[in-house]
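[audit] Reproducing an earlier prediction to check determinism. Same input, same settings, fresh worker. If the tokens differ from the archived copy the diff job will pick it up downstream; this log only records the rerun itself.
[audit] input (362 residues):
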Amino acid sequence: MTSNDRLHTFSNNSSIVRERIRHLPIGGRMKDIPSALWHDSYVRLGDKKTGGPNLRLLRLDPGLPSNTVTAYIFNKFVHPFEDRYITPREAARLQQFPDDHDFSGPITKVQLQIGNAVPVGLAEAVARHVASRFSVVTPGKPSAVSLFAGAGGMDLGFYPYFDVKSANEVVPEFSETLRRNFPTMEVVGRDISLLTGADLHPGSPDVVFGGPPCQPFSAAGKQRGVDDPRGQLVHQYLRIVEELGPRFFVMENVPGLRSNQQGGALRFIEQEAARIGYASESFVLTATDYGVPQLRRRLIVIGRRDASEAPLGRPPVTHSRFPADQGDLLLQPCATVEDALMGLPRANPRAAKGEASRVPAA
């Protein structure tokens, strides 16, 4: 990576934003800066005057894992040492994308791809756990199909253990990102409701994995769950699983799926899995436990076609949630923000509208 990486750029913010950031201590939030600089949304009217959205501003602590990366942290997460918001490349580091992962589209689309991704290390821990059920004497890797692949975070985690034959992603910029980074994988960029299993794999792959859109189940949204049109994509995911008949499926989603509709969303998935012949198990995993420099939590549902086969259980934890001097001596120390950002060159200001770009176009 060079210093003119188009993703390693940041916006020139207004003077009030720069002043807020300048007063922000390491690990600090809006409440930690002088009240005269608070954003209006941080002050509530009525009896309760304060206590608004604390996460409107957050300076990352270099000695700890970051808070959860989403598509909306690019005017929220502040660099631990520099007085600016983090760049898309820095966010991609927190998600464990390699620096040569080539994201397609304008910066706003890249931010979505990075923020929506499954952290690579978390995906790899799940993939390794599932792969342990396949015989080591079988020649070649077990085969897999990827659904709702996004920018390929989950695919990067599965690639060391599975031969990912094909992936489907309907958003054009996202599917182009997949094509750029996975040249041996067939990328199908179509609406999943118009696909059949045969469009993705000629026979039965060993594993189907992917994460249907999580907004219908997220605590940050309206939590309409399977009643939301996007929630119906969970049904489409399971339809493809039924048609392909893999030995296992792995579905990733937000932890809120467990509480959405009083647990009805998760029960729907479990019942649909049982209907198509799969016994399922689910657990919420914290990415920090698997070497990811981020406190992201995800729900993982694993279905197995042979109900007589023992459940896999939770992937074994490999890393402590605490720094090296506080962690479990039997585990590796957690990865931190400083670990993730180490070695990056200095970021560039992004050109304002109407100015010539300071970095090459995509």
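[audit] rerun output stored. Observation attached for the diff report: The radius of gyration is 21 Å.
[audit] end
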